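Quick one, T. Sequence first:
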Amino acid sequence: MRILLVEDEPTLRGQLLQALQQAGHTVETAADGATAQYLGEVEDFDAAVLDLGLPVRDGLTVLRAWREQGRPMPVLILTARAAWHEKVAGMDAGADDYLAKPFHMEELLARLRALLRRLSPHASAHWQCGPIVLDSRQARVTVDGRALTLTSHEFKVLALLMQRAGAVVSRTELSEHIYPQDSDRDSNTIEVFVGRLRKKLPPGSIATVRGLGYRLVDTAGAGQAWAAGTPLSA
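Structure tokens:
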């Protein structure tokens, strides 16, 4: 999942970034409200973690602007303000959940998972396409019960394809999903990751749609033959 993390305190921002990345998310960060508002308006995110006490522009103003622009991503508010009226103001502005500082990182990750499951039809902890099963919580993939060893980029490419199973996903979408905004995004490298995945998945699992992108295909029968070691043509 692509997460927008907005926190002005550098140490906490670094800790949150590390925890979210270790949970398998691609994370963009912002340290002030103006940058956060811009990113939330021009980029597509699956969710946002938003501090209220931000420089330049406060979090409530940012959140209201996102909702006025029709930005639908679920937003988890982080704030040191524990007063009940602050919580109500955040919810009224369009927040989906609220977490007061200090907090345990495990609770934040659990709340974020719950938001994604509740508000996104593709955000279950487990996804399956034929013999392929992906556990987003454990960052684990199995084929017919056999665990696969994937790099972080291979996992992220497969996760997006699993979310959109049966639909075409463009190279640009895949590139934006796995690389932070400030990285050099090269859609040609996606071909490399797809090629590696094809060697690890049952033959025919990832179809190329010329000029458009890739599609994950349910190959239940192929998966059984692959697991038994029977060679199949792609």
